[in-house]
Structures
1.
Amino acid sequence: MVDRNGWGADRPIPAGTSRDPPARFVEQANVFDPAIYDEFEERWPECWERAAALLSWNEEYDTVLEDEDAPFYRWFTGGTLNAAENCIDRHLEAGRKTHTAIRWEGKHGDRRTYTYRDLYVAVNEFAAALRDLGVEADDVVTIYLPMIPELPIAMLACARIGAPHSVVFAGLSADALATRMDAAGSEYLVTCDGYYRRGDAFNQKSKADNAKLALEADVRTVVVDRLGEELPHVLGEDEWDYHDRREEFSGETVDPVARDAEDMLFLMYTSGTTGDPKGVVHSTGGYLAHVAWTTRTVLDVEPADTYWCAADIGWITGHSYIVYGPLALGTTTVMYEGTPDYPDRDRLWEIVDRNAVDVFYTAPTAIRAFMKWGEEYPERHDLSSLRLLGTVGEPISPRPWDWYYTHIGGEECPIVDTWWQTETGAVTISTLPGIGEMKPGAAGPALPGIDVSVVDESGAPVDPGETGYLTLTRPWPGMLRTLYDSDGRFLEEYWMQFSDPGTGEWRYASGDTATVDEDGYVTVLGRVDDVINAAGRRLSTMEIESAITDVDGVAESAVVGRANDRGDTEIYAYVSTEGWSEAGADVREAIGANVESAIGPIAKPHEIVFTPELPKTRSGKIMRRLLEDIANDEELGDTSALRNPEIVGEIRSERSNR
Ligand code: WTA
């Protein structure tokens, strides 16, 4: 079993103390009757109508699930709806115009509140502006914006006119933006002049300009003026100012375009086994039903709540659980700009306190940082408004789990450890907080209606406690429909490994390894593919390696994950140079700069080790597992299968010299 991220079978997360959901929570939980598991089992797939019932449909669907063309599954076919209408208009009609939709916490105390009515106006005006630029249904609009309200506004404006959006995380580089726009054939871009991080102003427009230079297509661009005088910019040809455009279409409304349930709502690029990012395609009906349902059942969100997922909308977590899930339910969603430790390490708790946040959702990497900073920061604030806590993105070990439970939740809030992926669209594994016992370290059982199986190479379920591949055996509404423009790769990456097309038995391979216990609780161990999950972000080793080998003088490289003292995964690069010589500081610098420009600062190696050669098998394959063990100071297994076993000692001594 290959496991690259250091949570492998040899390093399991120790079991923590199990806990029952706090009684005060259970009394008011959206879901509290364990019968829901049986009900979903007995009525599968019709059980998923419960999720669809949370939405308003223009045209009722005829069929819950069509599987004739599996694994190209189709959900709620025949139904039509509009995602923006579901997230905005219907709440106005329900008399909730003045209810807060988005509360934005910008840097330096900059704050904005959008009621559902305000959001309606903004989205309509911008939808009208996009239409005027020529955007039509099915045109892919790329959005390259940081955490400012114009980001969800632009997404919803696209949804309103039936144009799929492709949001590219603002921290990615110009090259990464260009690759994604090119792959999606996207000729429209929404970006901004720049934004603040840790008090510094970053120039975003120059990255967007560089990306556009690399593209053949003419790109019509809308620029949000975020920084004003602080970063003056000029608009070029085919570029418009967001605010001017809104003004021009002030007060205009655009009828929401009724979309087929299976029409694409958005595209989200993510890392896969090869260097090319994968364009994960999400549907309108199934996706929205699944995110709304899980926001209600797993995160226990109610319309009256103030709910905060402290992720970035540039990744799937923000799409599903900052924008679509909470807004579909008509709740107040908080979004914040900046970082948790600026201006001080109590930034998040100050926001929870001031907004009386009911439900808070974050990632283990953040929780480990909070733990390291110490409880004095949350102690400065009143966190008693909190009712439920969530975590997502990587495994959480019992110590940070306990810390979160005690110091943030005051031992009164259940924690949901939610396992899901860009591809699953919404949560698939988690306890239901009003029902299930919590076992720190284990995400939980599959949600009702979801079927998880941990299997060996041959696809046979492993025994409880044994490590295997985490697979999903039945389709689910929020699942990806395909990879953009690449049905073949979709089949290859997710289905071929464990499916038997002959018998029509399809099984989704998640790319994760896991164990499962007697109660069906899944403990996720790590990735099996060439993906590093660094600080909860998915990066492809191939993509980083190709940026490294682009540097003059570099012959070969191998990138692995290394767990640091805090438990965060860092990027560790082994590099051999042409005509081996100890490379100097300039090569080191060039490698960092190249990775930054090809992908973004988040992918820069924390450490680079130069070596005359990389360890290889006799067939010439780089032994990554071994390199990972070296990086993590692990015992090395048998190296006799290597063509160049002597290199291992050299790499080790090079490492200890550093
Ligand atoms: C990992 C983020 C353990 C896993 C929503 C998965 C987790 C990858 C958990 C997807 C969790 C996510 N416990 N591991 N609760 N949640 N992961 O696509 O390896 O950015 O395959 O989606 O994150 O990352 P992605």
2.
Amino acid sequence: MHESTCSGAARSAPNRTTPARGPHRRRGCVLLIKAASDLKASDITPKSVFMNRRAVLAGAAGLAVSGAAARAEAEAKAKALEYVAWDQDLPGKLTKLEDITSYNNFNEFGLDKSDPKKYADALTVDPWSVQIDGLVEKPGSYPLDALLKTSTLEERIYRLRCVEAWSMVVPWIGIPLADVIARAEPSPSAKYVAFETLYRPEEMRGQRASFSLIDWPYREGLRLDEAMHPLTILATGLYGEEMPKQNGAPLRLVVPWKYGFKSIKSIVRITLTEAEPPTPWHTLQAGEYGFYANVNPDVDHPRWSQASERVIGSGLFAKKQPTLMFNGYAEEVEGLYAGMDLTRFY
Ligand code: MTE
């Protein structure tokens, strides 16, 4: 059994439409991750209970809290988020925090999976604001704090399936993208949403590299109805704490039914457009990466099969697991693509 932290206390949720897989109200928590894959979120212990237990143990042992311990606790609190915890079945066994934060794709910091953890510390994430513009009635530069107040922070435990045929299960903390877009009041002519990552070569060593496939900044895009779907979130944390820099601090997109490359990190701009926005992988290799990039076990990448996936953390000799249509979210999202030929619009 592996123990990992998940902190924060729930704030009350505002009145709004309940997402298809939205969480119910719960308190922040300590997760006891068992070997079994059929865990429910009800196995989660509220943090308050855990903290009380710790206080009782410390008191019983007659321990004085040292200055260093108090500082460590204060630091941990500064990073902890308040959020409404997930209270539904888990979509698989949670991936360990260590794996989520050390096996990354973030080309701005290098091409090796281990580079983002090594180099992303150079990124300044405070202050941070996001420009929302294009076909909206209320364009502007929104400071991160104000943007996050658009809605209540929620935990969303989602599968993440990379186009490279590996997968994880990540407990994100974020807000529905729909609430942010609604706040900017899209014009009737808006049909797509374009996203842009920060361009700051002095902090992002990959952007300074003499050769790069990507024409920086990294960009991504969604159709407006995909962006407004209740499963789509802007995440600002994971495992109960602020987003680690290597995972896209302070704000990244998460679209769980699409290949991971759509989930753009460290977003500084959101633009509503009438035409489909250009995206880097599609522009580079249209035959390999589509604009839609919906997880689809029946449409192989030209160089490898998409029928199964390697589960990160499952061990070198573990069997691959079958990939699910729309990454297991077909019930919620297949209606978005009714009548479309998914072998053509991949
Ligand atoms: N966003 C930016 N800005 N730069 C990137 O290189 N890589 C994408 C996506 N978002 C990427 C990005 C890819 S290919 C994947 S699979 C996911 O981030 C990986 O997210 P993770 O490192 O949190 O697992």
